[in-house]
Specification:
This protein is α+β, with helices and mostly antiparallel strands. It has a single domain, classed as PH-domain like. 33% of the residues lie in helices and 41% in strands. It is built from three helices and nine strands. Helix 1 runs antiparallel to helix 2. The protein is elongated.
C-alpha cells in the first residue's frame, strides 16, 4: 500500500540542458565534428540520470531515485529514528554530495528532510513538499 509518492523536477536545469543540446546538435551537424556528438551524448545520459527526483514511502520503506531510476536508495522505515524539516544553505547546491550533515540528495530548492538512522548516519533528502513527506514517514 503506497502512502506517499512525489516527483520533483528542476525546470531550470531541464531548460538549460535542452538549449545546450540543441546548440550541440546544430554545431555537430553543421561542423560534422564527432566531438560535439560525443558531448551531446554525455549531456543526454546525464539528463536521463538526473532530470528528476522521485520520493516514495510505502509500507515499511522509504525509497528515492533520480531520473530513470538507475541511481536509487531504499531504507526500511524501522531504521529511521529521527526526521525533521530543514533548510539547506544555497551553497549546498543540487545533486548528490557530502555535506556537514551527511549525504545530500537534492534536485532543486533549499527545503529538505534531515533523516537520522539507527546507525547514527544522517542524510538530507531535498523536497518541495517537506510537510507531506515528514507526515508520510510517521517518525515518532
Amino acid at each position: 500500500m503506497e502512502t506517499y509518492r512525489h516527483t520533483q523536477f528542476n525546470y531550470l536545469i531541464l531548460a538549460l540542458s535542452l538549449g545546450a543540446g540543441v546548440a550541440l546538435a546544430v554545431t555537430a551537424y553543421i561542423g560534422e565534428q564527432l566531438w560535439y556528438g560525443v558531448m551531446l551524448l554525455l549531456l543526454l545520459v546525464t539528463l536521463l540520470l538526473f532530470y528528476a527526483l522521485t520520493v516514495q514511502v510505502e509500507t515499511g520503506s522509504l525509497e528515492f531515485w533520480f531520473g530513470v531510476g538507475i541511481i536509487r536508495k531504499q531504507i526500511p522505515l524501522k531504521e529511521i529514528v529521527r526526521a525533521q524539516i530543514v533548510r539547506n544553505p544555497w551553497y549546498y547546491g543540487w545533486g548528490i554530495h557530502m555535506t556537514p550533515h551527511g549525504w545530500l540528495y537534492n534536485i532543486a530548492g533549499l527545503q529538505a528532510i534531515e533523516i537520522e538512522l539507527r546507525s547514527g548516519k544522517e542524510f538530507r533528502l531535498g523536497t518541495d513538499e517537506p510537510e507531506q513527506l515528514l507526515a508520510a514517514l510517521k517518525v515518532p
